[in-house]
Amino acid sequence: MATSTSVPARAGTGAPAQRRPASSRGPLRVLGRHPVGMLFAAPYVVFILAVFAYPLGLAVWMSFHDFFFSAPGVAVERPFVGLDNYVAVLTDPDVQRSFRNIAVFLVINVPLTVALSLVLATALNGAIRFRSFFRVAYYVPYVTASVAVVAVWLYLFSTGGLVNQVLGGAAPDPSWLVNKGLAMPVIAVFVTWKQLGFFILLYLAALQNVPKEVYESASVDGAGRLRTFWSITVPSVRPATTLVVILSTITGANLFTEPYLLTGGGGPDGASASPVLVMYQRGIEQGNPDVAAAIGVVLVVGVLLVSLVNRYVLERD
Amino acid sequence: MATPTTVAAGAGAPAVPPTATGGPRRRPSRTSWPRMLLLALGALLFLFPFYYMLVGSFTAEPDPSLAGLAPSPDELTVSNYSAIDGSIGLVRSLVNSGIFTGGVLLGTMVLGVLVGYALAQLEFRGRGAVFALMLLVQVVPFQLLTIPLYVLIVRDYGLADSYLGMILPFAINSTAVFVFRQYFLQLPRDLFDAARIDGAGELRVLWSIAVPLVRPALLTALLLTFIGPWNEFLWPFLVTKEQDMQPLAVSLANYITNLSARAANPFGAILAGACVLAAPAVVLFTVFQRHFVSNDVGSGVKG
C-alpha cells in the first residue's frame, strides 16, 4: 500500500524538474526545490517524535526496568531487570485470562463483522431506493460515542431489561452481563454492531472498484444471485477483507470502554476483562507501569502476529 | 488497492447518485425486494437502540416491558435531563468536550494541512522520510503508548486535569494528514507554479489557491477527525480526575459506574446523558452525510 500511494508523488515531481535546470538554484538544490516544505512539515515531525517515537521507546525501556511512579524531577534509580516484567506478565492468571477473553472476542467478532458488512455492503451497492437513509442508519452507531451506546445496551441487557422481558422464560440465568459464559459474547456482539457501519463503507469503496463488466458477463452466463456473490463479489474484495480482518483485530486488541462500562470493570470475576483493561488496572490503579508496559508490548506483538497470519492465509494464492 | 483513483472520485461532487426516484438505467424497486427487506431489517437493528435511548430518556418511570416502547405522551418528562445535569453538570461537560474536540480539530486542520500540502506539492529534502514516518505512525497501536504517555504527560509534565494534556496525544491526526495529502495530490502543479512566478509566497499559495480548491474535501476530513476526540474515553479518563475538567463521555461514564446507584431513575438519567453525548455526532453526520462517502473512509484507512 505504501508503494502504490507514493508512486504518483514521485512521478509528479519528475516532470517539472525537467523544465527547470537544476543549476538555477545553486547550492540550495540540496534542500530540494521548495525548502519551505521542511518548515511546513516541521511541526508534524516534532509531534511524531514527541508523542509517538519517544513514548514508544519509553514503553519498551520501561518493560525491561523496575519502573515506578515518582515525583517529577526527582532522580530515582530504575534498575534493569531483564525479562522479569515479562515473566510476571506471562505467569499472571489475570493477564492469561484477558488474552483468552480476547480470543473469544475475536472468534465471534471477526467472522461476524466480515460476513455482515460484506452482505450489507453488497445489498447497498448500486441503485437502491432510500440509499442515503440506509447509509446513515448503518453508520450512526459507528459515529456515536461508545459511552453513549453502552448506556442503552446496559438498559437493554440488564436483568429486568427489554431483551429478557421479550425472552421470558428463555432468558439466561444469571443474566447476560453478569454471566461468565455470556459477558464476553455480548461485548463481541456489541462491538460488531457498533463498528459495522465503518466496515460497510470500507467494503462499499472496494465494491465500486469491481468492474461492472464482470457482473454483466456473469448475468449473461445465467449465474444466480448467490452464485454471483460467492464467485465474483467475495474474491474481488479479498484485499479489503484482509484489511477488515486486520482492522477488526486491532479494534479488539484496543478493547477497554466496553468491558469497563458494560460489565462493570471486566466482570463477572474477570470473565470479560480485556488486556488493555488489565493494563490499566496493573499500571495505573496498582502503580506498576513497568508491568503494564510489558503487557502493551506483548499485546502489540500478538496483534502483529495475528495480522501477519491473516494476511498470509487470506492472500495465499 | 487504487487509492489515488478512489480519492479522485471522492473529492469531487457528492458520489451518491440521485437514485431516490429510480434512475433510467434500472428499476430498483421492483427487482430487489429481498434486498430491500434485508436492508430494512438491518436498519431496524441499527436504529432501534437509538429510538429506545430517546424513549428511555424521556420517561420518568422505567418500563422495560414491550409496552415501554411506546409510552403515552402524558408520561413524557424532562426530569431525567435535569437529574443528570444536577449530577455531572451537562453544560460544563459539553464545554470540556467542545474544547478537547476543538483543540484536536484546530491542530489537525492547521498543522495537518501544512504537512499534507508539503507532502503533496512541495519538493524538499526529507519528504520521503516524513511520508514514511506518517505511514509508520498509523501502524503503532495507541494502547502501547497509553502507559508511557500517561507517565510523561501526567507525571513528568504535570498536565493532568488540563486541556493541553487531553489534546496533546491527538493534536495532529495522521489519518487526516494522509487524506489531506491525497486531496492536494490531485491539484495540478502548474497552477501553483504560475502563482509562484507572480511572486506569491508558499503560505499564500496554500491559503489562496490550494485550500479553496479542496474545501469540500476538507469538510470530510474534519468530520472524520471529529469522531475521534468527541468519542474518546480512555485517554481523557486517565488525564482528568477533577469533574470540572472532564469531557461528557468521561463524566457520564463515571456517573454510570459510581453515582447512578443513588439516583431515583438511574437508567433514565444515564440515557438522558447518552442522548446529549450522541446528539452532536448524529446530527452532524446526518446533515453532512453526502460528504461522508465510502471512498474517503476507504482512502483514510489505507495508509
From TrEMBL, chain A:
Segments passing through the bilayer: 39-64, 102-124, 136-156, 182-205, 291-314
Give compartment(s). Answer: Cell membrane
Q: Name one Pfam family in it.
A: BPD_transp_1
For this protein, the record's CDD domains field holds: TM_PBP2
User: What topology does it adopt in the membrane?
Assistant: Multi-pass membrane protein
- Asked whether the keyword Kinase is assigned, the reply is no
* ABC transmembrane type-1 domain span: 99-310
Record's keyword annotation contains Chloroplast: no
Which keywords belong to this entry?
Cell membrane, Membrane, Transmembrane, Transmembrane helix, Transport
Region: Disordered; residue ranges are 1-26
Q: Gene3D superfamilies under this entry?
A: MetI-like
Signal peptide boundaries = none
Query: Which superkingdom does the taxonomy of this entry point to?
Result: Bacteria
Quote the InterPro entries the UniProt record gives: ABC_transporter_permease (IPR051393), MetI-like (IPR000515), MetI-like_sf (IPR035906)
Write out the similarity annotation.
Belongs to the binding-protein-dependent transport system permease family.
PANTHER family in alphabetical order: ABC TRANSPORTER PERMEASE PROTEIN, DIACETYLCHITOBIOSE UPTAKE SYSTEM PERMEASE PROTEIN NGCF
Q: What is this protein called?
A: Carbohydrate ABC transporter permease
From TrEMBL, chain B:
Highest taxon above the source species: Bacteria
Region of interest called Disordered, as start-end residue ranges on this chain: 1-30
Instruction: Tell me which SUPFAM superfamilies the record gives.
Output: MetI-like
Q: Which CDD domains match?
A: TM_PBP2 (cd06261)
Keyword vocabulary terms for this entry: Cell membrane, Membrane, Transmembrane, Transmembrane helix, Transport
List the InterPro entries hit by this protein, alphabetically.
MetI-like (IPR000515), MetI-like_sf (IPR035906)
Where does the record say this protein resides? Cell membrane
> What Gene3D superfamilies does UniProt report for this protein, alphabetically?
MetI-like
Q: Where is the ABC transmembrane type-1 domain?
A: 94-288
What membrane topology is annotated for this entry? Multi-pass membrane protein
Q: Which residues cross the membrane?
A: 36-54, 99-119, 131-151, 163-184, 205-227, 267-288
Stretches of Low complexity bias are at: 1-23
Q: Where this protein primarily resides, as one coarse class? A: membrane
- Family stated for the protein in its record: Belongs to the binding-protein-dependent transport system permease family.
* Record-given protein name: Carbohydrate ABC transporter permease
Give the source species. Aquipuribacter hungaricus
Upper taxonomic lineage: Bacteria, Bacillati, Actinomycetota, Actinomycetes, Micrococcales
